[in-house]
Amino acid sequence: MALVYSTETGRICPDCRKPLSDCTCKAAAKARPIGDGNVKVSRESKGRGGKTVTLVRGLPLDADALAALGKQLRSACGSGGTVKDGVLEIQGDHCERVMAELTQLGHKPKRVGG
Ligand SMILES: [Zn+2]
Question: pLDDT tens, 68-108?
């Protein structure tokens, strides 16, 4: 039975109580979506020396997928940008373009802010 070996290995993950060799916590944490699916697109220029950036928040994607989407959006906008703390940042005002791209990908982005 599955329970037998856990007492023999001695090394058990404190989170899932499985032997470390069977533990998937780390992989699960990495694959966990960062956002809640309420995708919000906004434009911001405050505190950035007057430079406008387009921000996308709430994407229900894990870190890798978010990075890939960021790359896709940046190339669609022909602009640079970053991913920071689960927020996609694209340099310049590209709200319309980003909204269109996200909608095409099956998201339901909302325009927020100015
Ligand atoms: Zn675990």
Answer: 999 999 999 999 999 988 899 999 999 999 999 999 999 99
Let me know whether 21 and 45 are in one domain: no
DSSP 37: S
Count up the domains in the chain and report the number: 2
pLDDT of residue 39: 96
Same structural domain for residues 23 and 52? no
CA–CA gap between residue 59 and residue 34 (Å, rounded): 7
In 1-114, DSSP assigns E strands to 40-44, 53-57, 81-84, 87-91, 110-112
Ligand 1 centroid vs 6 CA: distance in angstroms? Answer: 12
CA 27 to ligand 1 center in whole angstroms: 9
Distance 29 CA to ligand 1 centre (A): 10
Q: Is the dihedral of CA 34, 40, 45, 47 positive or negative?
A: negative
Q: Which residue segment(s) compose the domain that 106 sits in? A: 33-111
Residue 12 Cα to ligand 1 midpoint, Å, equals 8
Q: What are the backbone dihedrals phi and psi of residue 48, each rounded to the nearest 5 degrees, phi first?
A: -125, 25
